[in-house]
């Protein structure tokens, strides 16, 4: 009888010990699974893994920046049709483009160089050349395009006419230079008449930041004028000027033949297109062909660069 009690007690102790060991093992397994998950997620927070998919970010159709980008990098077919991959994520403004890339470590995008905010994103070299106004001016950075404004040949708004004269004056082109763009050479001092009234300027979101500064400078010398600025895209800028909704249209590209047939265009500055990546992306230099292949959809991961 005593022997049976001893065996029962011994069995109970063994069960308790097994349960304790099982609990310890479960805890260890959970820890191991956590370690494995951490490894699969790329280790420490903020690490960058080149095996990840590239998120190509583009501008909307009608954007002058998109048109200039596809032309300059050759992301077009034999008939110059836009061939940007349908997998690309579309944004509708320069600011949204920068925000999108700043929030995605594996994204790549493109913006007006003059709008670049290096606290948000990083501009990569193209073919070994830094994207700077100086390099655009000396011809080593090839990815550049004109900023155009356009009016009807029979423009009869005195404020719009005077504002155009200010933009193309020494004072106006100094604003262009101060904002990091390439100014137009051989201009003269502003000698306007400061007319009273208003006008509407609209179009490209890439030209908008520069135009805001030009309007601010003009209204300082002509407090009698009020200029309304509407931001859309280059194509809308031109069509709305033709239709009469805008007195002055903005385009971050060359005017198309059909636009030039109805409008008088004026280059007010030269701007570069900066190819941007997330600040955590270690990529510092891309060739023109690499950018092209990303946007054609032929290269889809960063380790294929």
UniProtKB/TrEMBL annotation:
<comment type="function">
    <text>Part of the ABC transporter complex PstSACB involved in phosphate import.</text>
</comment>
<dbReference type="InterPro" id="IPR024370">
    <property type="entry name" value="PBP_domain"/>
</dbReference>
<feature type="region of interest" description="Disordered">
    <location>
        <begin position="24"/>
        <end position="48"/>
    </location>
</feature>
<keyword id="KW-0813">Transport</keyword>
<feature type="domain" description="PBP">
    <location>
        <begin position="48"/>
        <end position="171"/>
    </location>
</feature>
<dbReference type="GO" id="GO:0006817">
    <property type="term" value="P:phosphate ion transport"/>
</dbReference>
<keyword id="KW-0732">Signal</keyword>
<feature type="domain" description="PBP">
    <location>
        <begin position="192"/>
        <end position="303"/>
    </location>
</feature>
<keyword id="KW-0449">Lipoprotein</keyword>
<comment type="subunit">
    <text>The complex is composed of two ATP-binding proteins (PstB), two transmembrane proteins (PstC and PstA) and a solute-binding protein (PstS).</text>
</comment>
<comment type="similarity">
    <text>Belongs to the PstS family.</text>
</comment>
<dbReference type="InterPro" id="IPR050811">
    <property type="entry name" value="Phosphate_ABC_transporter"/>
</dbReference>
<dbReference type="Pfam" id="PF12849">
    <property type="entry name" value="PBP_like_2"/>
</dbReference>
<keyword id="KW-0564">Palmitate</keyword>
<protein>
    <submittedName>
        <fullName>Phosphate ABC transporter substrate-binding protein</fullName>
    </submittedName>
</protein>
<keyword id="KW-0592">Phosphate transport</keyword>
<dbReference type="GO" id="GO:0005886">
    <property type="term" value="C:plasma membrane"/>
</dbReference>
<feature type="signal peptide">
    <location>
        <begin position="1"/>
        <end position="20"/>
    </location>
</feature>
